[in-house]
Amino acid sequence: MNQQELRRKRLEDEMQQHIDLETQENIDSGMSPLEARQAAMRKFGSAPQAGDQSREAWGWLWPERLWQDIRFALRSFRKDAGFTVVALLSLMLGVGASIALFSVVYGVLIDPYPYAKPDKIWAPAVLGPNDAVRGWHWYTQRELTEIQKLPAFADTMATSVKPVMMTGGINPENFYGVFLTGGAFNFLDVKPLVGRTIQPFDIGPGGEPAPVVVLSYGYWQRFFSGDPHAIGRTITLDDVPHTIIGVMPPRFGWWTNESFWLPLRMDPKDPTGLAVIVRLAPGVTQHAAEQQLNQLNIRFAAERPNDYPKGTLRTILLNYMDITVASGDMSQSLHLLLAAVGLLLLIACVNVANLQLARTTGRAREIAMRLAIGAGRGRLVRQLLTESVLLSVVGGALGVLFALGATRLIVVLIPPDYVPNEARITINGYVLLFSLVVSMLTGILFGLAPALRSSRPNLVDTLKDGGGGATGTLRGGAMRSWLVVAEISLSVILLAGASLAVRGFMQVQNTDPGFQPEKVLRIDVTLAPKRYPTWQQRNTLDRSLLESVTNLPGVQAAEIGNEGLPYSGFRSPFTIAGQPRTDGRQVELALVSSRYPQTLGIPLNRGREFTEAEIESGMRVALINESAARLWPAGQDPIGRAMQIDGLTQAADDPQVLPAPGVAASVTIVGVIGDIKNDGLGGAVFPAVYLPYTMFAPPQRELAVRTTGDPLALVNAVRLKARDLDKDLAVGKPETLNERLSQETQQPRFFMALFSAFAGLGLALAAIGIYSVISYNVTQRVQEIGVRMALGAKRGDILKLILLIVAKFASLGLAVGLVGSLLIERLVRFQMFTKTSFGAAPLAVIVLLLAAVAMLAAWLPAARAGNLDPVTALRHEA
Amino acid sequence: MESQLELLQGTLDLLILQTVAFGPAHGHAIARIIQQRSEEVLQVGHGSLYPALQRLLKQGLIVAEDGLSENNRKARFYRLTAKGRKKLTAETSKWERFSSAIARMLAPLPDQNS
Predict the structure, then answer these.
(1) CA angle A134, A137, A139 (to 5 degrees)
(2) Same structural domain for residues A566 and A712?
(3) Greatest CA separation found in chain B?
(4) Closest Cα in chain A to B70
């Protein structure tokens, strides 16, 4: 810069001196000083221009030129305020919506985890010959030690989740504690916020875990208000004081973001299932690792046949990035929304291109004039490109502002159950880079075409002709009409997609869940396992609780059990007596009490309910749903028949779950109740078997209460009853069944809301675009209209003329859009969770809507044209 | 129009090189020399001399050095470099063929003597 200034100064001095010398010579030859100076300057010519050209020789000029171009661009934008506003609005909405959605995709799908190299974490799944992948496999501790020895794995860790009772506070509370192997935190490699994480030395040589706990950020905030001095204090978990050694940052949610992590007791005899994840040793391929693990699994299956699929085993390593809660519905929705936002952006781009084209065409005379007085083509293209890029950069910046708000809105709307705990949806550097690239590309691509086109006009024609006029041959006119066609067809596709989303949501919303969710409260109750060591003691407590809750005023019916309430469920293989065993078939198991059907409002279709005596002793009887009843051949009444349920003997192995005396796999069916949508509202009903809850006595139960009034008003009464029985009984997570049910619809609702919003924006942008192009075209044809009217055309004829042209392009756009939507529907349908198709009615509405928009956009300028005074129109020069 | 400009530009460059081949000269002197020799033929605006000088400087055909002008003021003197001399020789033969065709139609140019 200094160097440049210096050169500039020197050059100015030199030129000044030149003029001085010339002046002196002129004086010497007898001129007056004033005359001499004027003559010298005349001879020299334009000093600033000479300066400019001299500097240009060194290439010093481009920043100045750029600034000049920008100032010129700003001036010309100010002159075309309407154009500028529409273009900026289009870019803001198009780019803004893309940024917002890309932030979500980035946070949820691309980078959801804080863990070190999450794409290098693998979870094993063990499958039978015909099984589809359903999730990862649960190993025992003894198996874990074998897996750790495999050379294919560089590192392994295991997780197990168990209910943990926290006492010593105001109320006892039940948490799901996450138990980890000693190296787990090092495996995940996330630094604690305060203190330290669990280390291998926290588990003693005999497998004894040290009484230490690492808190989640949520727990720390809730119970310690974020006090860093919480480190070193103790909390009582399952009657044992645990020392707090660390707190994890908010973005750490390994299996929980509201409880805590504890070292796992290493005991080879512990049968509790462990979720194992691994990192591969350097140079080991996924395939080789799967092979090694499969050999091991075959051995394990021989020792523990009940917990492994039958037949030839296959082992698959699932990449951790592919098994987040967002995979499946959320991932599909986001991909479709990304496509929708892409269409929206495309519409915005078409708008901008359209406007740029219209504007440069309108400026044809200006451009021709500048070319005629010697502007270089390159210089002119640079000027036009500067305008486009300036426009897109400002539009992009506005887009970022819009995205800030939109992202916040999406975060509020996004269903939390479908997003990993750790995901953070923010506008970060990558997202901004993305938006910068998108807006610059938009500017350059959609600015360059009109720029190149307009810099090559036939100067003579353009200058002679009034910029169009009676000939009606408009440069870019055809291209603009095609852009209108594109805009209409893109809108049709976007709206058709939105209609699909809305239908999908309505379908789910209107699905009969099979039970009556109104006025039902559900609540968790957990007893301290050590204080109730026998099956009998636990059942007595459960029964007293159920009785006292049933007798509360305002209670119609109450029920206690496990897994019986919608959208939970434990699945087990089974065999029907008299039928060959089929691998891979499962039933859903639930433990319920006698008033279960009444509490949930499920009809008893055949047979009978459980008797008090059956409940009392945990007898091996069962209710099944209609779907389960169909497992028997038609005409065969399942009532009175027996089935074997593998899960019953498995559950009896769990030391936490105390089985009733004489529990075995075989149960007798006594009744058939109605189907409830137990596998999600969109899915098919899963066969279900309901058993007396007393068959097992786990520490935790779920209580459901049908009330006459507001169900949540009963929460305190239930708490008091529980406290009367035992002050250490933990009562938590009250919720109405309606709330539960609405969680089922939140994913389609989210999808519908966003898709409709994008489609709405797209429609608005397309409407603006169509309007501006058509009205511009009419303005360009004013002279032609004048001639027509002078020759006797009526107002109606002019209207008809314009409307006909628009109708031609609009119907072409609609046709292309419809064909496009049908093609896309075919592609999308099989992966769309809603499984709906368009149906004629919504498509008809969309076509009418867009036709109306196009006609309205044409009507206003056409009506204006019809009102023109022929004389004015003839004189008009566009 | 552009090709004409190109020609003029090349011509001016050549004239400057030719002028400073006699010895170092400052801008005004160069303009005066060209003017004196070709006044009626080449209407060279004095201003356009400077862009041409900068161009030649950048190409390394001439160098600038500080000196004193005839009225004892500091001035920039331009001198031909070896590269410039080579370029001048090369361009001259090219130019001669070209100019011989035009020379008859224009006022006589000074003899080429380098």
Answers:
(1) 165
(2) yes
(3) 43
(4) A21
Show Cβ contacts of residue A290 under 8 Å, excluding neighbours closer than 6 positions: A315, A316, A317
- A169 within domain boundaries: yes
Backbone φ, ψ for residue A381 (5° rounding) = -60, -40
- Inter-chain residue contact B45 with A17, CB threshold 8 Å: no
Q: How far apart are CA A216 and CA A256, in angstroms?
A: 8
pLDDT digits over A750-780, tens only? 888 888 999 888 888 888 887 877 777 777 7
Residues A593 and A465 in one domain: no
Is there a single domain that holds both residue A651 and residue A668?
yes
Does residue A704 sit within a domain? yes
- pLDDT tens digits, B85-109: 888 888 888 777 777 777 666 665 5
Q: Which amino acid is located at A798 in the chain? A: I
A16, B74 Cβ separation under 8 angstroms: no
- Taking CA A442 as the corner, what is the angle to CA A441 and CA A446, rounded to the nearest 5 degrees? 115
Are residue A764 and residue A631 in the same domain, yes or no?
no
Region A316-338: mean pLDDT is 82
DSSP state of A211: S
Within 8 A of B71 by CB-CB distance, chain A residues are: 21, 24
The one-character DSSP state at A726 is -
Q: What does pLDDT average to over chain A?
A: 83
Chain A positions in Cβ-Cβ contact with residue B28 (cut-off 8 Å): 17-18, 21-22
The domain tally of chain A equals: 4
B71 touches chain A (CB under 8 A): yes
Amino acid A75: pLDDT: 84
B76 with A10: Cβ contact below 8 A: yes
Both A338 and A474 in one domain: the answer is: yes
Q: pLDDT tens digits, residue range A429-482? A: 887 887 778 777 877 777 676 666 666 655 555 555 544 433 333 445 666 778
Same domain, A318 and A336: no
Out of A17, A47, A57, closest to residue B54 by CB: A57
Whether residue B64 lies within 8 A of chain A, CB to CB, comes out as no
Shortest CA gap B10–chain A (Å): 14
Q: What dotted CATH number matches B2-103?
A: 1.10.10.10
Rounded Cα gap, residues A847 and A814, in angstroms? 7
Same domain, residue pair A477 and A542? no
Give the distance from residue A451's alpha carbon to the nearest chain B alpha carbon, in angstroms. 21
Residue listed under structure tokens 């009998």: A536
Minimal Cβ distance to A45: which of B48, B53, B57: B48
Nearest residue in B to A24, CA atom: B71
Could A50 and B53 be called an inter-chain contact, meaning their C-beta atoms sit closer than 8 Å?
no
Residue A590 sits in the same domain as residue A459: no
Range of the domain at A637: 528-728
Question: Where do the domains of chain B lie?
Answer: 2-103
**How many contacts does A have with B, using Cβ atoms within 8 A?**
65
pLDDT tens digits for range A70-82: 888 888 778 777 7
Per-residue pLDDT tens digits for A64-121:
777 778 888 888 778 777 778 888 888 889 889 988 988 888 888 888 888 888 888 9
Residues of A with CB under 8 A from a CB of B: 10-11, 14-15, 17-18, 20-22, 24-25, 43-47, 49-51, 53-58, 374
- Nearest beta carbon to residue B47 from set A46, A55, A57: A46
Contacts of B39 in chain A (CB under 8 A): none
Question: Nearest CA of chain A to the CA of B62: how many Å?
Answer: 14
The span from the first CA to the last CA of chain A, in angstroms, equals 46
Question: Which of A322, A339, A365 is a domain's end point?
Answer: A322
Task: Classify the complex by whether its ipTM is higher than 0.90, answering yes or no.
Answer: no
Q: Return d(Cα A838, Cα A492) in angstroms, integer.
A: 12
> Taking the alpha carbons of A536, A538, A544, A546 in that order, is the dihedral positive or negative?
negative
Domain end point (choices A322, A340, A364)? A322
- The closest CB to that of B50, out of A43, A54, A374, belongs to A54
